[in-house]
């Protein structure tokens, strides 16, 4: 490396301070060392200041126009024009606040929403303020969507450390395990109610909430004279004798408005004199919410006119649950070993009154008829304290619930899933008859090697984890580990007041299938809600085409993507499973140790199915009625109230527990 004398002279000429070194006197090796040292210092400064680049860019964007002509102070940081502009534009996007709207300019109306969700990615439905969770709740996602769409205007929204998390009241811990603050939501003034409170991992296809939301209905204005009389009503605001800025709104309901200036559009005024259509002219609530909700949460319908005094929880008269499982329940144990009785009900013991299913199924398969026999005992009004988890904080003393329907139902393998593809509107060819394909004969004759069933239960109300407890007992019956008569045995709370310990069924296959709101006056048990679904003809209006059920980004299009992703996973896993079983010489199925059982094999642990992805080894099976019992419900409740600060709960609820010995 060489340095010209001209460069050294120029450096000497530009030196503004006397204390700056005279580089003209330096040797070539000294100059090279000095340049290397300065480069190291510059690189060190750039490295230390890089985490603050975004913050610096945000400050520059915030102060633009006020300090644009002011030179920057402090050490200069080299930055290319492209990176600088990119950082500035990025910071502008991050700091951009959503447009605020004036709630007083809009009508509000009370509606009901029906929506569905797949629950595995969520921490249940109900949200608890101040509770930091690794997974968000369904209620939290719904609240954020309503806020983002500016459909609700709660009186107060407060989050720890100010507004955060999309500027909507807090930050939730992410699913990647990152740190965050407890998310706080507030339904004050929204007339919010919810029907079902599903637990973590549980899904719902017919969840219902009632809520007051923003409406597109034109707001009525009144002309007020100085004497205080109304002289006219119209869409144009005119004030006669009213001070400037005074509100002249007339609320249709005549009730005090808790939302500070928002009028309420009641169901009794479904049309106005200017031809307002209560459905077709309204905001497309389904489309609006589905655009901002996660893809595994979908709004299915809305009701424009819920009954008077509607409450999603207390107005519901029937809840329907389905618990899905496969047949076989898990990969069956091959060979004679699969028929060894390990803790099962012996032939001499009472197992069933139906001789058609006295034979034990292979380990992994379920006796569906025995399960159906057991499910019949559930119908009617019973005390289900032995089929639930006791929550002492609720201080529940009445465990009687009414079951309208209980059965084990088969999903038709010829139509399920995606039975809608058999409709004429979805046929593959335009001609009346489908074209003949080389695999058509196979498709017509094929039957699935695996069947899908559901434990279907309809009831007026349910206790905590009741359906999962019922499913667990039915699975024990299906495996031959318990007789169907175990169910009436556990329902007899006089004989068995204390629940035996047993594991409840897995959460993933459980679905809150539907919530029924019948007409109280007619006596019918059918749902009487006026649901408006996506794509209904009532939502269609000339020039308004964003309420379609089908098409890009629609309800069906999004749910197809959700289904297909999981279907491909199923296909790949199934093909891999078939491949693994087919490989090798098959000696594992035929060699002597399977044919000639030994005491060690006969005494191995029983594999028990609880609704999960696989059977669990639990040692030698112990019948339910021989297991350890929990304390009576009354004792559990009394023990809770004797904890510091808990006695007031029982007193408020008017329950005398002083005579109970814990």
From TrEMBL:
Keyword Isomerase: yes
Any one cellular-component term (Gene Ontology): nucleus
Feature: compositional bias, Polar residues: 1-10, 21-32, 41-51
Biased composition (Low complexity): 82-91
Coiled-coil segments: none
Family from the record: Belongs to the tRNA pseudouridine synthase TruA family.
Organism listed in the record: Blastomyces parvus
InterPro entries per the UniProt record, alphabetical: PsdUridine_synth_cat_dom_sf, PsdUridine_synth_TruA, PsdUridine_synth_TruA_a/b_dom, PsdUridine_synth_TruA_C, TruA/RsuA/RluB/E/F_N
Keyword Ribonucleoprotein on entry: no
HAMAP family linked to this entry: TruA
Keywords attached to this entry: Isomerase, tRNA processing
Gene Ontology terms: biological process: mRNA pseudouridine synthesis; tRNA pseudouridine synthesis
Annotated SUPFAM superfamilies: Pseudouridine synthase
Domain Pseudouridine synthase I TruA alpha/beta: from-to ranges: 375-518
Record-level Gene Ontology MF annotations: pseudouridine synthase activity; RNA binding
Region entry Disordered, spans: 1-101, 335-362
Domain of life: Eukaryota
Protein name (database record): tRNA pseudouridine(38-40) synthase
